[in-house]
């Protein structure tokens, strides 16, 4: 799997030497004629697969009428999207932006503004967890746990206290007079596809209620059907006060959202936050089309069933290769193979055999197929991975 760089493009990515020219469902076709089964989905973004007719029609129709006006004016499609997101979640209100990092930034600001509005401006710190990833802005790399992501960008933004993932004793010890809230992922994605224990999430909710903190769920990767439920928090029955979304929400078109209860967002008034592009007519049309499909009777149940099938197949794969795979872990359409051989080797071998995967921390190969994936595609992917692990280390 060779890499290539264009000198005019800033080298923030080590790009694989392939250029895709079209997509069809769960497959991508490269300019050189190669065909790939896409179990990366643009890093959990292409929720309905490539070239989905409903999404193409919605975006094409909107593109022929109106692209952008800014948030200085009403945007009917955005209002409809907000109504649907709140009607199908814990939230009362939505702020729209363009990316996951922006959605997390908005969530951080909501938490700080909440306490400031209630007469406690000193409460600005958030508790976050080892293994977490919340974006690449200065604030979100400080909220995340990766020293590598912060290297060279210091000093870190103040206001984040990291504790061990899943350790409630450390959480309670970290709560102080300046604590504003807790930010957590329903499943740690970049951290190695590590599902958060539902009991731990319930304990976090109880602690937030006890100390007057806001509970923020970063569902940039787990939201919009990725876990087999519409939202990852539904797996535990725990409702947050604030939730960050992006990735799959637009099915490939950039859009992010910060959802919140009316109480949590009471401090967000005109002029306190903004986004020029956020929720513009094109983005809203794309996201509404995604929801049109996801909210149809039986769609998410089918996604969950296929996800369970994939998980079972990956479990059997791990049993066949005990010297190369420590475990298969995940939920829904979000799975990781914890490798005992270098994960980069498996990602490269899968690529050479026509399967796209995504590496993650903890030496994990991540599988994030589109939500329209079928059992036959899962079998195809696992058969390729079987060959990769048979030849691992040779």
Provide mean pLDDT, rounded. Answer: 96
Category from helices, strands and their pairing: alpha/beta
Helix content: 25-40%
- What is the CATH architecture descriptor of the largest domain? 3-Layer(aba) Sandwich
At the fold tier of CATH, the topology name of the largest domain is Aspartate Aminotransferase, domain 2
- What is the gyration radius calculated from CA atoms? 21 Å
The main sheet comes to: 7 strands, mixed
Structural domains: how many: 2
> What is the element string, with H for helices and E for strands?
EEEHHHEHEHHEHEEEHEEEHHEEHEEEH
In CATH, what is the homologous superfamily of the largest domain?
Type I PLP-dependent aspartate aminotransferase-like (Major domain)
The percent range for strand residues is 15-25%
What order do the strands of the largest sheet run in, or round the barrel if closed?
4-12-11-10-7-5-6
Report on this structure.
This protein has 394 residues and is α/β, with parallel strands linked by helices. It folds into two domains: 20-52 and 297-390, Aspartate Aminotransferase, domain 1 (Alpha-Beta Complex); 66-294, Type I PLP-dependent aspartate aminotransferase-like (Major domain) (Aspartate Aminotransferase, domain 2), CATH 3.40.640. It has twelve helices and 17 strands. It has a seven-stranded mixed beta sheet, with helices on both faces. A four-stranded mixed beta sheet has the order 1-2-3-15. Helix 2 (53-63) runs antiparallel to helix 9 (281-294) and helix 10 (299-320) packs parallel to helix 12. The mean pLDDT is 96.
């Amino acid at each position: 799997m060779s890499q290539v760089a264009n000198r005019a493009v800033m080298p923030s990515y080590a790009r694989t030497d392939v250029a895709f020219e079209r997509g069809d469902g769960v497959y991508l076709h490269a300019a050189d004629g190669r065909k790939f089964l896409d179990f990366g989905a643009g890093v959990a973004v292409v929720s309905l697969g490539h070239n989905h007719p409903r999404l193409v029609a919605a975006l094409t129709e909107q593109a022929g009428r109106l692209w952008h006006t800014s948030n200085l004016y009403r945007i009917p499609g955005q209002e409809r999207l907000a109504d649907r997101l709140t009607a199908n979640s814990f939230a009362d209100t939505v702020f729209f932006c363009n990316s996951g990092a922006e959605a997390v930034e908005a969530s951080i600001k909501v938490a700080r503004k909440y306490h400031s509005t209630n007469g406690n401006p000193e409460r600005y710190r958030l508790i976050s967890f080892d293994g977490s990833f919340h974006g690449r802005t200065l604030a979100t790399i400080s909220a995340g746990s990766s020293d590598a992501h912060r290297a060279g960008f210091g000093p870190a933004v103040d206001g984040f206290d990291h504790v061990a993932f899943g350790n409630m004793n450390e959480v309670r010890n970290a709560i102080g007079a300046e604590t504003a809230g807790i930010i957590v992922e329903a499943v740690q994605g970049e951290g190695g596809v590590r599902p958060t224990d539902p009991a731990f999430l319930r304990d976090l909710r109880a602690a937030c209620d006890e100390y007057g903190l806001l509970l923020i769920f970063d569902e940039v990767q787990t939201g919009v059907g990725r876990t087999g439920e519409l939202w990852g928090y539904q797996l535990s029955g725990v409702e947050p006060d604030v939730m960050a979304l992006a990735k799959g929400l637009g099915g490939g078109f950039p859009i992010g959202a910060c959802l919140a209860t009316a109480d949590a967002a009471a401090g967000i008034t005109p002029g306190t936050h903004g986004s020029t592009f956020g929720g513009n007519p094109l983005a809203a049309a794309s996201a509404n089309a995604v929801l049109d499909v996801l909210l149809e009777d039986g769609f998410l149940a089918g996604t969950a069933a296929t996800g369970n099938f994939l998980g079972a197949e990956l479990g059997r794969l791990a049993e066949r290769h005990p010297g190369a795979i420590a475990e298969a872990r995940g939920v829904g359409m979000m799975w990781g193979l914890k490798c005992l051989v270098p994960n980069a080797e498996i990602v490269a071998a899968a690529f050479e055999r026509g399967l796209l995967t995504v590496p993650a921390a903890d030496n994990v190969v991540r599988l994030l197929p589109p939500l329209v994936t079928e059992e036959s595609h899962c079998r195809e992917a696992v058969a390729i991975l079987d060959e990769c692990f048979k030849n691992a280390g040779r």
